[in-house]
Structure formats: C-alpha cells, structure tokens
C-alpha cells in the first residue's frame, strides 16, 4: 500500500473513546523498546508520525492512526517496562485486553519481538493470549540489521521455539534501518484486512 495520508485520530483509554468507524483495524503490540514507532513510521514512509521516545513506556493510551482512509493502526502501550507501578501496569493490561477481545473492527495483531533476544515472558504471553482468543497474529521480528545474516536462522528458530509458533501464522523479519520486511509486512496487513488494490 502506498501511503500518502496518515494521521493520528485519537488516543483512547476506554471503548467509549474508540473512533466510531467501520474501518478495519490492525493493532501493534510489543515491548516498550521493540521499535514499534519505527515500524509504523517505516510502513507509512514518515519520519515521526508515531513518536519514537527515548523513554520507553511513554505510550499509555491506545493510539488510533488513520491510514489512507483504508484502515486504522492501533498502537498499544508497550509492555514489560519496569518503571511503571504494578497498578499502572494492571490498568494498561485491562485496557489492552478489553480492546483486543471486544473490538469488532480488529482484524489482526502485529506482535513485534526484538530479533536479537529470546522473547520475553510478556512476548510469549501475548502470543498465547492471541492464540487463545483466536485473534490472527503477524509476528514481526525487529532490528534484524543488528544481527549478522549468517545467524538469522538461529535467531528465528530461537524465537519460534520460545513462542511455540504455529506454522499457519506469518513471521516477518524486519528492519526500520534497511527497510527489509516492509513489503512483506504490508502484504500480511493487506491480506488481514482484505484489501485489494
């Protein structure tokens, strides 16, 4: 998809604030420093529509982005960030769970995982949660440019094993630096929302 128009529509914390729109939605979930904003910005060819922050854990709301009047990207608060109190974290958890399990417009979740490391407990929980609720999932392994190509297979196997990754799901290697995986990510998203040019 060629993106000319992308804008943030609303930051929501509860269903009452979700946009009233029939547009299909793709949620983006991942650890606080996994490169979610960079992923969004790479996909829409912008430098800073989604703000990249030096302080992880800054996104504390569900941020809805309108992409080409065709779909919404929904940026979910990053998880696994230590400096947030347990009560805060529980609140986010509830907010994310409510959105993921109740939003009819949701077509798939892009689950971003740092390619360099074994998936965190939260990464694994997120994947299992999506499988449990039968929500389509696209796993995107970020920051592949930081790992020598010769070790990609090893890292991919490590991640898939930790997640108990299911073959029917999509697994994409991605780098916001080299733009590797950008086309594959769009293909998977377009397929999820039933978009045909």
From TrEMBL:
InterPro entries: G_ENGB_dom, GTP-bd, GTP-bd_ribosome_bio_YsxC, P-loop_NTPase, Small_GTP-bd. Keywords: Cell cycle, Cell division, GTP-binding, Magnesium, Metal-binding, Nucleotide-binding, Septation. This is Probable GTP-binding protein EngB. PANTHER family: ENGB-TYPE G DOMAIN-CONTAINING PROTEIN, MSS1/TRME-RELATED GTP-BINDING PROTEIN. Belongs to the TRAFAC class TrmE-Era-EngA-EngB-Septin-like GTPase superfamily. EngB GTPase family. Necessary for normal cell division and for the maintenance of normal septation. Its cofactor is Mg(2+). Signal peptide: none annotated. Coiled coil: none annotated. Residues 22-195 form the EngB-type G domain.
């Amino acid at each position: 998809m060629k993106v000319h128009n992308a804008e943030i529509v609303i930051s929501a914390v509860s269903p009452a604030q979700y946009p009233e729109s029939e547009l299909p939605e793709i949620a983006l979930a991942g650890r606080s420093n996994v490169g979610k904003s960079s992923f969004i910005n790479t996909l829409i060819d912008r430098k800073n529509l989604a703000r990249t922050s030096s302080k992880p854990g800054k996104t504390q709301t569900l941020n809805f982005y309108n992409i080409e009047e065709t779909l919404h990207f929904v940026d979910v608060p990053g998880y696994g960030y230590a400096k947030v109190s347990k009560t805060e974290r529980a609140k986010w958890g509830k907010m994310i769970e409510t959105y993921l399990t109740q939003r009819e417009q949701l077509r798939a979740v892009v689950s971003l995982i740092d390619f360099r490391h074994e998936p965190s407990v939260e990464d694994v929980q997120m994947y299992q949660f999506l499988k449990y609720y039968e929500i389509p999932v696209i796993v995107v392994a970020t920051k592949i440019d930081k790992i020598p190509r010769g070790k990609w297979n090893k890292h991919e196997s490590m991640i898939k094993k930790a997640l108990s990754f299911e073959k029917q799901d999509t697994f994409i290697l991605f780098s916001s630096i080299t733009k590797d995986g950008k086309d594959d990510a769009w293909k998977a998203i377009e397929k999820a929302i039933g978009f045909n040019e």
